[in-house]
Amino acid sequence: MSRIGRELAAVSKGMLAFLGVSALCGVLVAALMVPAVAVSESAASGSTQFLSSLPTELQSPPPGQVTRVLAADGSPIATLFAQNRVDVPLSAMAPTIQKAIVAIEDYRFYEHGGVDPMGILRAFVSDAGGAHQGASTLTQQYVTNVLNANLAAEGKGTDVVFNGQKSVGEKLREMKLAISLEQRMSKDKILEGYLNIAPFSGNTYGIQAASQYFFSTDAKNLTLPQAALLAGLVNGPSYYDPSAHPARALARRNLVLDAMLEHGAIDRAQHDSAVATPLKLKLSPPRQGCQNATQAPYFCDWVIHQIENDPAYGATTQDRIDRLLSGGLTIRTTLDPRLQAPAQKQADATTGAHESKWGSSLVTIQPGTGKVLAMAQNSRQLAGQGSDLVSAYNFNVDASDEGGNPLGGVGGMAPGSTMKPATLAAWLSEGKQTNQVVDASKRRYAPGYPWKTTCTPVKGFFDSSVSGSTDLQNDDDSHYRPMTVREGIYNSINTATFASLAGLNDVCDVQRVADEIGLHVGDKAGHKIDLSTLGNILGSQNVAPLVMANAFATFAANGTYCTPIAISEVDDAQGKKIGGQDAACHAGALDPDVAKGVTNVLQDVLTKGSGLLIPQKLSVPAAAKTGTNQFNNQTWVVGYTRGLATASFFGDPFNGGPSHPGQNVTINGKFYPAVDGAYIAGPQWASYMQKVVDLYDHGEFDAPPQRLIGDGPASITDQTAGTDSSGGTTSNGGTDPFGSTGAPTDTGQTTGPFG
Hints:
By secondary structure, this protein is of the alpha+beta class.
């Protein structure tokens, strides 16, 4: 066929298609001829019925928007999204972008009723001449973008049909929806919707996200050259991407400026000045996810896990994840950046950036509220972020919640002697005094020892006369002697703790105290520490630092226990509150006088006991307890002021076993024959706390009643009382992982200056 024949055939084919479309569009004629008004009363009844209701396709939830996680002061922590989009009102979009998009995409936008017959004729003539020109109005494009967004939200992204591939039926449907939309929405609202949903580049949708990505500015501040560049992108986001194809982008931008001049949106001087302006990109690629958080990435991850686990945000886990990635939520947290920044700096400084075998962490809770104020560790979630220790696991929190849902934690570490205040609190709860003397020379607790218990029989023993066991160990030989319960705590003497345990009217009181202050094992919140097993009295079961900090916060709050909270409020994309965590506190969970007595003793840890080895001293009243496991590779200081309770950890958060001992090691350039809680975790705690204590209540602690202190040393407690009324007896050895060997968790490292 000749060239002329081919052209005539193309024209004939185009004419037939146009006539076919025209015939099928008969019901649309009334709407085509009038801008932004309802179909006239004189329109055919069939047309009126056809256009009478806004189709359900356009009533679907809005397309996905960015979820923001914020600190307590409103500063950003992280953003999460499936599509990088932040909706803003038209008033927050510069007039330049509004004029630019209308000029290049649909200059008759304010004149037609959703479908532009003049545009269709122009496109027909252009196509017949061998060129190609689209005829879709901004309203039609908006309809298409909404339909595509809904398909994507339904997981049907493969069903999206692009403009050049649409059938006549699909184009008719688009026209019908566009006309229906214009009967329900103003032109400005349609323009606003279009500019909020249009794709501008890759995963960047909407003018606000595009402005931030390409120019690091808000949509309301776009200059004329910037607006023209962005308006040009919607025709081909990848093809005209200025970061990849600057020459194409510049030519397209100038074409937009030409259109703006032609249609009177700008004058010649504005045009020429803008054309002469270079691209001047200032790219700000979006940092998605908690792994790219600007602060507190592990706290962020913990917050997100809590929302993923909460049915209040969706029926299924996947529903909740989808809402997080697409719902445009604003998650306001309890994190205090004034504490978080120094906590992170200190955790990093403790080990140094090139440490890949040892972990350090800090977590702070506000006593009396349960608010988690800071959460830091020396690892990073991604390589290349400034630390050689890369881990997805949070050192500070439980592995899972009460329902078994993941929380992202390692599952806790052995707290060692930081567990001893539970036995002290039980002692005081029975009305006993801190200055009462116990026999810390006693080292044998044989099978069948007559522990007083009204609940589970005590398991385990320490008795060198039994094969495979040893006597109870202290760090040195100078503390196997009678001493006050107070000295036993501040010098962290194992034998003194066991003498106190043996002197209780009911060993079960230790379990009750632990439960009241929220202590539980780190594999799953709600699983109690088994304090009927002797080794656990000295801290052998893993506990998360957050749990330890919160337990000590209960002492600081004079016995008021509060559930840790991190989420102050969750708002949806429209700003409506849909969730959050309210303070859940129980005044008197622990007797206030008992809590005061514990604090009174723990103050001595820092002034005359194991904490004396911490070189930094706080300038305000403080209380603390050191802790070290038997392998010196999980070490702690947990301490508090009236307004802040902090758990400081240093060691191996993953193993803690004999294969990686904290003995004869060099940490951050310093050699340690054996690492103790006071050596690294202690200075980390003190240095950080000194920087932040003035920000919260740091007054004097309330004094305990004298009846719990005593006037001076009393008589040695009877260690050989008979069995309790319930007939509880000691089980045989071997059931206690440490009793059968005589090696409690803190053996060798929890007494004297090493507690």
